[in-house]
């Protein structure tokens, strides 16, 4: 990671200290695996987001998620998920007790599946425009509105629906890539949260019953950040930026709930779900099924290559670990199926709030 980014985040951290923002680490929740399959009335899931939630919207020609070795654990071949298997969307659908919603791109060929909702998430996208041409969050909600306008869904369908919103990591990557300044970072975070709040309200305005938005993960613990320490430690400055984002998000969600009847909006705390894994491994190195949590299963053979890359002769430019189930991260940004399952287990207590 460049000095520029460190500089940016140092300023942000100073801002957090100066404003007296409380940054609290959550305690790890007990980890019990139970798929509840509540049938308490959610029959549809609508998903807005990026690669943490995308189940196949990205163009096959451009996305690594359609190349080997993505999908090797489930369903056994690449189908557009940024993992060796299932992602957050799939686990949330299973929690609600429905099939994973159909990717928007496949809506015309899988019309039967539309009764479970639609997944509008595209890998690489953000709240604002990012470095990829894929639809940002505003456009994803436009697609949703169009389906309602076309009569695919109506008020009574939507009454039994829940939305998952998983975005913002790519907004920060784009900010850095476009030489965003240290001084501008806190203002940029505020603009993201303000736009997110508008978008969340807009989703709810279509008649969606519950809207779950993810806190941003500890970006300093992603393998791309941890690589510089040979996957030995998280980058704390980056994690501070994530905490600042999450603090403002929590405040925005509380404000939205105060303005609407019932607690429509909730935060899924990915930050602490990820951190509880890392902290547990630190405290009890022997009991975790994961090896080095920060080290991904699939890595490029050199800095210019990443998982799934091949050269002009079709030679693989990546290596894959022997057992993806023993890794928390699949590639340099995305959890493995096993990683997502662990995160999902850590989120169980918050997920129960969906039914309050």
From TrEMBL:
Keywords: Hydrolase, Lipid metabolism, Signal
Entry annotated with the keyword Signal: yes
Signal peptide: 1-26
A single GO molecular function term of this UniProt record: hydrolase activity, acting on ester bonds
InterPro entries referenced in this protein's UniProt entry, alphabetically: GDSL, SGNH_hydro_sf, SGNH_plant_lipase-like
Gene3D superfamilies linked: SGNH hydrolase (3.40.50.1110)
SUPFAM superfamilies: SGNH hydrolase
Domain of life: Eukaryota
Pfam families per the UniProt record, alphabetical: Lipase_GDSL
Protein name: GDSL esterase/lipase At5g03610-like
Key word Signal present: yes
UniProt record similarity statement: Belongs to the 'GDSL' lipolytic enzyme family.
GO BP, one annotated term: lipid metabolic process
């Amino acid at each position: 990671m460049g000095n520029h980014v460190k500089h940016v985040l140092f300023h942000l951290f100073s801002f957090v200290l100066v404003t007296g923002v409380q940054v609290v680490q959550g305690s790890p929740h007990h980890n019990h695996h139970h798929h509840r399959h509540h049938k308490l009335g959610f029959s549809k899931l609508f998903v807005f987001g990026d690669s943490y939630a995308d189940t196949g919207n990205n163009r096959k020609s451009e996305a690594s998620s359609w190349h080997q070795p993505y999908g090797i654990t489930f369903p056994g071949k690449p189908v557009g998920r940024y993992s060796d298997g299932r992602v957050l969307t799939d686990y949330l659908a299973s929690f609600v007790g429905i099939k994973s919603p159909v990717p928007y791109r496949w809506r015309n060929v899988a019309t039967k599946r539309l009764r479970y909702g639609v997944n509008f998430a595209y890998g690489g996208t953000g709240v604002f425009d990012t470095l990829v041409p894929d639809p940002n969050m505003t456009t994803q909600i436009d697609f949703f509105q169009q389906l309602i306008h076309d009569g695919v869904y109506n008020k009574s369908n939507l009454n039994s629906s829940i939305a998952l919103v998983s975005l913002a990591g790519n907004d920060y990557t784009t900010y850095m890539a476009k030489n965003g300044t240290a001084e501008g970072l806190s203002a940029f975070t505020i603009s993201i949260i303000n736009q997110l709040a508008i978008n969340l309200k807009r989703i709810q305005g279509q008649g969606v019953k519950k809207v779950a938005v993810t806190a941003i993960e500890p970006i300093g613990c992603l393998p791309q950040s941890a690589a510089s320490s040979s996957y030995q430690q998280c980058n704390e400055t980056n994690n501070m930026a994530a905490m600042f984002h999450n603090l403002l998000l929590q405040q925005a969600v509380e404000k939205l709930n105060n303005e609407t009847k019932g607690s429509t909006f909730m935060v899924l705390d990915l930050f602490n779900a990820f951190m509880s894994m890392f902290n547990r491994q630190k405290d009890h190195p022997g009991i975790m099924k994961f090896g080095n949590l920060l080290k991904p299963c699939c890595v490029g053979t050199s800095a210019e290559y990443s998982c799934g890359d091949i050269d002009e002769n079709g030679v693989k430019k990546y290596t894959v670990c022997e057992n993806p189930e023993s890794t928390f991260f699949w590639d340099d940004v995305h959890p493995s199926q096993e990683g997502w399952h662990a995160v999902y287990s850590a989120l169980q207590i918050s997920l129960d709030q969906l039914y309050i």
